[in-house]
Amino acid sequence: MSMNISNADRAQVLVQALPYIQKLAGKTIVVKYGGNAMVSPELKEAVMSDIVLMQLVGINVVVVHGGGPEISGMLKKIGKESRFVNGLRYTDAETMDVVQMVLAGKVNKALVQMLEQHGGKSMGLCGLDGRMIMAEKKISGEDLGYVGEITEVNTRAIEDATRQGYVPVIATVAGGYQGEVYNINADIAAASIAAKLGALKLILMTDIRGLLRDKEDENTLIPVVNVSEVPSLKREGIISGGMIPKIDCCVEAVRQGVGRAHIIDGRIRHSILIELFSDQGIGTMFY
Fold first, then answer.
1. DSSP track, the chain
2. What pLDDT does 219 receive?
3. Which of 64, 204, 280, 283 is least buried, going by the fewest C-beta atoms within 10 A?
4. CB–CB of 163/28 below 8 Å?
5. Which of 122, 169, 171, 177 is nearest to 152 (CA)?
6. In angstroms, rounded to a whole number, what is the distance separating the alpha carbons of residues 193 and 30?
């Protein structure tokens, strides 16, 4: 693709991006990386180069990632069934060991290595590092085992890494007060971290266009939502199913002082750059 655009067009693109770059330089943006963008090799490459570019133009990028499919794959290898309760993984002690190994080990370090290969500087962390994410057992209806509710977020390790020029890449495994380890939903963790950092933006990458007025029609994208409109959108059934927790995370982040929260389509190459550096934006923005 890059070969067919003329140098004049290329210059034009950069000129148009300049005001956005100026506005974002020195600001913090938290990217929740997940969904298909984590699975497809070509989308992975695009996300990595986007993050490196953001870092190079002076944005403090913080990456928070999940890894559900990888965890399910490893559980399958050891002959253990994945069980979900209302979209959350039931996590017994053995499953928790696998979650910690896969997320904080394999997935986290593979992302760090990929960012480094693309010319970025990156450091892998998880919620256990520097007591970054502390949690208690989530008590709601059915017992979920070691699924945690965040009680505090300490961002010092993240800020130290950023100051030293690293992109912190964070696995959402949290520590308990008696030495337990908890599995934390990555969207919720990203929202809490963004709030505590006072981030300008929280970007959640998903496998859908954004919030649609009609789920069957991608042309009915709702580009901008004021968080005060969310309850009525839920009542109308426009926000339903798997979108509810994601949008609740956006609302929570904005209420706690994050400038804007965005749900963007990770299936579109370079969707982060389109969102940050162009007039049109992409996906749904909550303010």
1. -GGGS-HHHHHHHHHHHHHHHHHHTT-EEEEEE-GGGGTSHHHHHHHHHHHHHHHHTT-EEEEEE--HHHHHHHHHHTT----EETTEE-B-HHHHHHHHIIIIIIIHHHHHHHHHHTT--EEEEETTGGG-EEEEE--SSS--BSBEEEEEE--HHHHHHHHTT-EEEEE-EEE-TTS-EEE--HHHHHHHHHHHHT-SEEEEEESSSS-BSSTT-GGGB--EE-GGGHHHHHHTTSS-TTHHHHHHHHHHHHHTT-SEEEEEETTSTTHHHHHHHSSS--SEEE-
2. 86
3. 280
4. no
5. 177
6. 8
Looking at this protein, which amino acid is placed at residue 196?
A: K
**CA dist 19 → 14, 26, 27, 61, 274 (Å):** 10, 14, 14, 18, 14
C-beta separation of 197 from 191 below 8 A:
no
Which tokens is 93 given?
């002690």
Per-residue pLDDT tens digits for 175-207? 999 999 999 999 999 999 999 999 999 999 998
The pLDDT of residue 124: 98
Contact 96, 146 (CB under 8 A): yes
Tokens describing residue 113: 């290595």
The angle formed by the CA atoms of residues 193, 197 and 201, to the nearest 5 degrees, is: 80
Cβ count within 10 A of residue 206: 23
Distance CA 49, CA 217 (A): 30
